[in-house]
Amino acid sequence: MNADSSFSIASSWRDLPAAQQPDYPDLEALRAVTSELEGYPPLVFAGEADQLRARLASVARGEAFLLQGGDCAEAFDQVSADQIRAKLKTLLQMSAVLTYAAAVPVVKVGRIAGQYSKPRSKPTETRDGVSLPSYRGDSVNGPEFTAEARIPDPERLRRMYHASAATLNLVRGFTTGGYADLRQVHAWNQDFVRTSASGQRYEALAREIDNALNFMKACGADPAEFHSVEFYASHEALLLDYEAALTRVDSRSGRLYDVSGHMVWIGERTRQLDGAHIAFAASISNPVGVKIGPTTTPEEALALIDRLDPEREAGRLTFITRMGADRIRDLLPPLVERVTASGAQVAWVCDPMHGNTFEAASGHKTRRFDDVLDEVKGFFEVHKGLGTHPGGIHVELTGDDVTECVGGGNEILVDDLHQRYETACDPRLNRSQSLDLAFLVAEMYRG
Ligand code: PEP
Ligand code: CO
């Protein structure tokens, strides 16, 4: 496809207000990069996005559970085999816990291979009386607090593409090349088992899984599903110049797909009904998510469905709610009731992170593990009360032993936060906290 046709194809959003876009000083440089990106190979295939849509349809129908997780913001200097493997391992372990302990198929989607752009609540950051443009993710500018680093640089879009490609390549290798084989269920835990209570709890469950696998094998059953794993990539579709440059016509169907990731979501700050982000999301056929925060009215939720899922196709639209632990029990029921009454089949997923952020006395942005847990609990209670399906969780996590969220089994205290606080943006659950969460969610699911 040439640059002109893709420009016109994926351009329905261009005349609309687009929130949270970088202020590029050199628009010609931007155009040069995006037109090159238009010629780059797709990162994912339309057929894969369709397959994820079918899996999410099972979630919407109540037959499967979505586990979506990864960094708040990926960073270019963290694209390493060790870090990607650790993240994947954590997600695979959580998935094994959920699949075995809750006996539900788990759809696994990373916040990975494209999660480089951040919406910010404030356009500038002030330190010691000096104000500079906010850091908006490695795809836009640099985190260093200097005027130069904070200038949006379109070359970073190209780096995002290459970082995403390298990450996805490794993820594909791990998930299909034997590493994700269920018989590796112990290996994912090897470096962890002796050092943490959640690691030991996991080890006991892994032994049970092993026994079940041996039993099945002795019976002559060894299905292909045990030897590799279906894993999908997702990120927030924030930078529309990048997403549009990676939007292509699918030769099979003639429809548009954003080939930068299997699933994309629209964030809480960019989901305006008359804005560019929703228009862009409406133009593509990937499964899409929308973050739904505390101000969302049932009317807005219904209007989002009309815009994004006019055909009422299960799997197309996922609502990712992020209300805060103290409000979810009040705010979620009217939304779920009205949406359900409308006949729409969305997947409901709980983001227990973004409504529970606060600043500790030390100045670190953090979250309490107990609040995260309580929001998930509230989410399950509401759905149970209404007879609807709690479709999944959307979490910020890392495979490394960071100290960014407080609490959890290996209790991290506010005074510990400085020890390993490494996030490029929001605080993430570490591996032990992630596993703890998976065990607790499995219990709630079995409820
Ligand atoms: C995020 O997912 O990192 C994020 C910014 O979330 P939200 O749009 O819900 O605030
Ligand atoms: Co975040």
From TrEMBL:
Record has Ubl conjugation as a keyword: no
Per UniProt, Mn(2+) binds at 72, 354, 396, 426
Which residue intervals make up region (Disordered)? 116-135
- Give the reactions, separated by semicolons, that this protein catalyses: D-erythrose 4-phosphate + phosphoenolpyruvate + H2O = 7-phospho-2-dehydro-3-deoxy-D-arabino-heptonate + phosphate
Record pathway:
Metabolic intermediate biosynthesis; chorismate biosynthesis; chorismate from D-erythrose 4-phosphate and phosphoenolpyruvate: step 1/7
> Manganese among the record's keywords?
yes
The record describes how the cofactor is bound as: Binds 1 divalent cation per subunit. The enzyme is active with manganese, cobalt or cadmium ions.
For this protein, the record's InterPro entries field holds: Aldolase_TIM, DAHP_synth_2
GO terms classed as biological process: amino acid biosynthetic process; aromatic amino acid family biosynthetic process; chorismate biosynthetic process
UniProt binding sites for phosphoenolpyruvate: 111, 268-269, 291, 322
As cofactor, the record names: Mn(2+); Co(2+); Cd(2+)
Where on the tree of life does the source sit, at the highest rank? Bacteria
Sorted keywords for this record are: Amino-acid biosynthesis, Aromatic amino acid biosynthesis, Cadmium, Cobalt, Manganese, Transferase
Q: What is its EC number?
A: 2.5.1.54
For this UniProt entry, the molecular function terms from Gene Ontology, in alphabetical order, are: 3-deoxy-7-phosphoheptulonate synthase activity
Name the protein family.
Belongs to the class-II DAHP synthase family.
- Name of this protein: Phospho-2-dehydro-3-deoxyheptonate aldolase
